[in-house]
């Protein structure tokens, strides 16, 4: 059998499973209980783990915010602390653009089964939520191909932007940290970064020497979805070589719901407090290695990701996904003449998933492609430093089956980019620019003649400028202005078929031009001891926003036009360019209530070393189709949240809530409005150490209780709230417990 051909047998996702961990999860448990492998824990990781607070909803809206999470409460501060964000090509200092980073305990405590749900709740970030198994991040109301998802700063390839029910092939169990970046630096990563960049860091290609052996292992279980999960990572090496190996396994049953829901899946109850067809089984792993030399390194990795999951929208449809990725990464430090260093990243991805209908293989999606990225960091020109680069991408996409709503296609892009930073006495200025040539070609389909064929070439250009101003020791102001252009994707140009995930017949428009936007944001941040506050206002105007617009026509699944209201007919939605605007506000902060440097000098339970912090967060987005005057669909409502975070020695605890207002600003195309709701949550963590001979491991024992009141709620940003109501509410009450060891 060809290695690119999926098995014709439907993935087995039983409604009830063994209450034991899968084999890979057992690996994690053995790693937690077995003897250690190294003489000492990695100093930096241990320090971060021991000091980072565990809160019910840890948040971060700027790079500065995240940096303070691992600092001692009374650390002296001359100005806002700086943090390195990998998405910043200069790897440096305080970022001008709003940036968020999740790592350590903060990432462990908010990890969900999808990338979108893991990041959902960060100010400015929501999720497409196609049930518990598939979601992408939404940033400031922008989703799909406007959000660039990276892996270790390199391009990734999948089909998640094509359809809401297609999962992103990432796994938090083996992720080191996740970064969210917007502004001038985002232009380095493509026209698809109009909304921002999400960078998933897993260190599968070590970029720094590793002395000895380090690693981590984690095992967890949850009541709401019957989760049994485990992951393990081991790294070892010396000054010349480094090796990385990781493995993970996550197995879940149908997710618990706060209401009785109907289900027609064979073998499942007809009515139960479960989200029908929401079980999943994810597993995979990677091996990578690096050779270090005097002026740089060269590394390679191979990784695989497998995910069998129910689509939720249909009771008898499951998806079997496979993604294999091979990557190269290298750097040569020149430190002479006009260049300081040259970095290279290259990858090849082979992605395929099959949709099974009642056990029979249906539509199969394939996407294979390559990415090459070169970055040259030039020598400082006075106070000016920066990088210039080249990026080339190519991919071949195909969809075969009854629900293939897009044709065979090939996409290619070549881009030149630059990012510069000018240090000043009052802060710094940043500049970013990108010019591309993009070609999109449709080859039609051997199974049907409804797709247009042809080749289209686009030349998008983007530029951005930003400024950071230091005001006094504790204040910073930031602002970013950008003009961006995005070439339309293959499905936006050539789609023509039934798309069950959107409940519509989608039609592309081969006459589409570039998507164009002008955006500005202004932010302020304050930090004094353990107290901090950050707020950012943003505004974006699109002269040509490409979105799905209802035409008023209806078609059968065979493409025949019928009168509106005909039974089983699908409404037609066409990709069209409209004028649109997005604007909003996002904020976060933390106030020390009790403890050293707190508002009150009282002690908690007589413990003078304990602290109590009040964490606050909130955001609001408004998006309007200016051609019709109606709101754009699937925009998050006003969101407000708060957490009380307590810390004392090795103990951490948090209790908090997230309130989402009603979303009545919806278009008149049948989009469903959602009511207001409040979700309460709590967490508890305990740090300890275990000694095995000369080896010491740092352990985090944790528990997280989500949706404490078992509130029934529906997401305003999920298309299922409209197309499959009431099948997919947000998950009900769930207790998750786990342990993570680092050594």
Summary keywords:
22-stranded antiparallel barrel; disordered N terminus; mainly beta; 36 strands; 6% helix; 743 residues
Topology, element by element:
Elements: H1 23-33, H2 43-51, H3 63-67, E1 99-103, H4 104-110, H5 115-119, E2 125-127, E3 137-139, E4 147-151, E5 154-155, E6 177-181, E7 196-201, E8 212-222, E9 228-237, E10 241-252, E11 256-262, E12 271-274, E13 280-293, E14 296-310, E15 317-336, E16 339-357, E17 360-378, E18 384-400, E19 408-423, E20 427-444, E21 454-458, E22 461-471, E23 475-486, H6 490-494, E24 496-499, E25 504-507, E26 515-528, E27 531-555, E28 561-562, E29 570-594, E30 611-625, E31 630-631, E32 639-648, E33 651-660, E34 677-692, E35 695-706, H7 720-723, E36 734-742
Give a written overview of the molecule.
By secondary structure, the chain is mostly beta strands. The protein contains 7 helices and 36 strands. β4 and β5 form a beta hairpin.
Précis, in short:
With 743 residues, this protein is mostly beta strands.
Secondary structure tally, helices: 7
CA-based gyration radius: 25 Å
Largest sheet: 22 strands, antiparallel, barrel
Strand count = 36
Q: Quickly give the structural class.
A: mainly beta
Mean pLDDT: 85
How far apart the termini lie comes to 42 Å
- Pick out the low-confidence regions: 1-9, 14-84
Multimeric organization: single chain
Shape: globular
Proportion of strand residues: over 45%
Helix share, percent: under 10%
């Amino acid at each position: 059998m060809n290695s690119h051909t999926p098995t014709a047998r439907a993935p087995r996702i039983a409604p009830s499973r063994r209450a034991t961990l899968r084999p890979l999860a057992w690996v994690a448990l053995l790693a937690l209980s077995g003897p250690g492998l190294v003489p000492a824990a990695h100093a930096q990781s241990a320090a971060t783990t021991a000091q980072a607070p565990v809160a019910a909803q840890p948040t971060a809206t700027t790079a500065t915010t995240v940096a303070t999470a691992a600092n001692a409460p009374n650390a002296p501060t001359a100005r806002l602390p700086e943090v390195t964000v990998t998405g910043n090509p200069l790897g440096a200092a305080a970022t001008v653009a709003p940036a968020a980073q999740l790592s350590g305990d903060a990432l462990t405590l908010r990890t969900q089964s999808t990338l979108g749900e893991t990041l959902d709740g960060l100010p400015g970030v929501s999720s497409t939520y196609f049930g518990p198994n598939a979601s992408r991040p939404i940033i400031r109301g922008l989703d799909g191909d406007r959000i660039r998802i990276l892996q270790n700063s390199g391009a990734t390839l999948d089909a998640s932007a094509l359809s809401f029910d297609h999962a992103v092939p990432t796994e938090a169990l083996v992720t080191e940290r996740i970064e969210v970046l917007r502004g001038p630096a985002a232009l380095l990563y493509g026209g698809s970064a109009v909304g921002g960049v999400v960078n998933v860091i897993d260190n599968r290609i070590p970029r720094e020497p590793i002395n000895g052996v380090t690693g981590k292992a984690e095992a967890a279980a949850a009541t709401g979805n019957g989760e049994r999960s485990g992951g393990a990572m081991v790294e070892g090496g010396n000054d010349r070589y480094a090796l990385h190996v990781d493995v993970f396994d996550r197995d879940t049953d149908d997710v618990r719901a706060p209401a009785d829901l109907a289900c027609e899946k064979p073998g499942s109850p007809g009515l139960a407090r479960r989200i029908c067809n929401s079980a999943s089984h994810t597993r995979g792993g990677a091996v990578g290695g690096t050779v270090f030399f005097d002026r740089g390194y060269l590394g390679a990795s191979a990784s695989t990701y497998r995910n069998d999951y129910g689509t939720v929208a249909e009771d008898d449809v499951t998806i079997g996904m496979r993604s294999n990725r091979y990557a190269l990464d290298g750097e040569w430090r020149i430190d002479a003449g006009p260049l300081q260093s040259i970095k290279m990243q290259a990858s090849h991805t082979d992605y395929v998933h099959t949709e099974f209908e009642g056990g029979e293989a249906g539509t199969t999606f394939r996407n294979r492609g390559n990415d090459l990225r070169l970055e040259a960091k030039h020598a400082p020109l006075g106070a000016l430093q920066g990088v210039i680069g080249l990026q080339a991408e190519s991919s071949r996409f195909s969809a075969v089956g009854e629900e293939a709503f897009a044709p065979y296609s090939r996409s290619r892009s070549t881009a030149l980019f630059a990012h510069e930073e000018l240090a000043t006495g009052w802060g710094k200025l940043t500049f970013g620019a990108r010019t591309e040539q993009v070609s999109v070609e449709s080859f039609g389909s051997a199974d049907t003649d409804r797709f247009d064929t042809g080749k289209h070439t686009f030349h998008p250009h983007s530029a951005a400028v930003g400024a950071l101003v230091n005001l006094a020791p504790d204040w910073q102001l930031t602002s970013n202005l950008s003009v961006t252009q995005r070439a339309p994707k293959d499905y936006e140009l050539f789609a023509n078929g039934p798309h069950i995930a959107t409940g519509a017949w989608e039609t592309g428009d081969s006459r589409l031009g570039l998507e164009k936007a002008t955006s500005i944001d202004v932010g302020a941040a304050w930090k004094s001891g353990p107290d901090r506050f950050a707020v950012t206002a943003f505004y974006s105007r699109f002269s040509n926003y490409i979105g799905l617009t209802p035409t008023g026509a209806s078609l059968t699944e065979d493409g025949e036009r019928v009168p509106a209201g005909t039974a089983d007919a699908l409404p037609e939605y066409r990709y069209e360019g409209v004028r649109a605007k997005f604007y909003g506000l996002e904020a976060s902060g933390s106030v020390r209530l009790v403890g050293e440097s707190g508002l009150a000098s009282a002690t908690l339970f007589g413990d003078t070393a304990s602290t109590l912090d009040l964490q606050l967060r909130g955001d609001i987005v408004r998006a309007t189709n200016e051609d019709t005057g109606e709101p754009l669909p699937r925009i998050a409502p006003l969101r407000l949240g708060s957490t009380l975070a307590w810390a004392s020695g090795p103990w951490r605890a948090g209790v908090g809530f997230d309130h989402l207002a009603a979303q009545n600003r919806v278009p008149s195309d049948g989009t469903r409005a959602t009511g207001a709701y409040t979700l309460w949550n709590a967490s508890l963590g305990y740090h300890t150490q275990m000694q095995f001979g000369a080896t010491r491991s740092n352990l985090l024992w944790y528990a997280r209780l989500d949706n404490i009141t078992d509130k029934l709620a529906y997401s305003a940003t999920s298309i299922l709230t409209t197309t499959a109501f009431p099948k997919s509410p947000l998950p009900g009450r769930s207790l998750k417990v786990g342990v993570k060891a680092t050594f």
